[in-house]
Amino acid sequence: MTGPYVGILAAGEGSKTAPFGRWSPAIAETVNALRLRGINAVAVAVDDLGQKRFVRVWRPGVGHRWHGELKAAPKILYNRILNRSREHRPEVQSLLRTLTQQGDILFNPGYLSKAVLYRHLSGSAVADYLPETSLQPAPSDVLAMLARRSCLYLKPVDSCGGRGIFQIRQNGPAWQVTEVRKKIALTSSFHERQELLAWLDRLLHRREYLCQQALSLDRIDGRPYDFRVLVQKDGRGRWTYVDAGIRLAAPGHVVTHRPNGGRILRREQLLRLRFDRFRWKAIESEIAAAAIAAARALEAGSGEHFGILTLDMGLERTSERLWLLEINAKPGRFDEPWIQLKSDYLLASYIRHLAARRGEFHENIYSP
C-alpha cells in the first residue's frame, strides 16, 4: 500500500493471535477503517517502540488472524492504548516522551484526568459551560457544596465510562447516596451528619475525587439524556464538528453510559418527544460551537496534540442551558453508523494532512 504510513499505538500482549489482548478487535477496527481509505495503517505495541529503527508491526487478517512483520517504525502515531493503568506506567510514559522528543508526530497522547481537564478549561472561553467543581475536596467541602446545591456528584478523576460515580442528595433530614455498579443503581441513606462525614473520609482517602454540582438534566419519560459529541481535525488540520449521538439513562439511573444500562436515542425520537426542528437546529449549533471551542482550549491549555475528541454535553431541564460534562481523548467507535463513517473519513483526511506536513506523502491532502 502506497498511502501515508501511520501506526496505531496499542498495549501489546505478546500473542500472535491477539497481539493486543482483549483490545485487539477495537484496534483491528481502526486499522481496517483507515486501510479501506487508502492509509497504510498498522498496529504497533508501545513497548516495541522507542529509538528502534525497525519494529514489529501488525495487520489484521482473515478470521481474526493477525500478520506481524518487521518494518520501519512509523513516524506518525495515533495513541489507542486503551488501558489507563498500562498507559500510566513509568516506562510507557518515558517511551511516549521519547517519541515526541525525537520528532515523531503523536496525537491523542493520553487519557484525560478530570482534574487536569477542569484546570485547563476553567479559565478559557468555555468556562461558563462547566458546572461548579471542587478539586480534591475534603469531606467538609462536600457538605458545604451540598448545602448550596442540595445535590452533587463525586467523580474519580481518573475513571471513564461512568464508573465509580456517586450522587449525593439531601433528602429531608437524611442524605441519599446513589452509585451505579454493573448496571444496578445502589442507594443508601445516612441519617446522621457524622455517619456521612465518616463515609466521605473513607472514600476520599482511597482515591482522588472531584466534587461537582449536579445538574437537573432534561428528561424523556423521567430519564435524563445527554449528547455524545464528536469533534475531529479535518484535512487542513482544523477542528470540525462531526455529529452528536444521544444517550438515554436506564430507569432509575443517574448516568447515561451504555455499560451502565444507557441506550441510544434516535434524533427522530428526540424531535418527536421534545423539540421541533427549529429549536433543535439552534441547540445543535451551540453544541458544535462550544465543542470546537473546548477542543481548542484543551490543546492551548495542555500544549498537547489531539486529533479526535468526544465530549459529553447536556441540557438543563428548565432553562435548556447547555453544559459541558466530560471530554474523552480515547473515544470508542460510535454505534450510529453514519457518524462512524464520517469519523473514519475525517481521520484518514487528517493523517494525509500530517503526512504532507512531514513531507512523507505528496498526494493532494484534500483528496478523499
TrEMBL record:
Domain ATP-grasp: 283-356
Domain of life: Bacteria
UniProt keyword rRNA-binding, yes or no: no
A Pfam family: ATPgrasp_YheCD
Any one GO MF annotation of this record: ATP binding
Stored PROSITE patterns: ATP_GRASP
Keywords: ATP-binding, Nucleotide-binding
InterPro entries: ATP-grasp, YheC/D
Name the record gives this protein: ATP-grasp domain-containing protein
Organism of this sequence: Heliomicrobium undosum
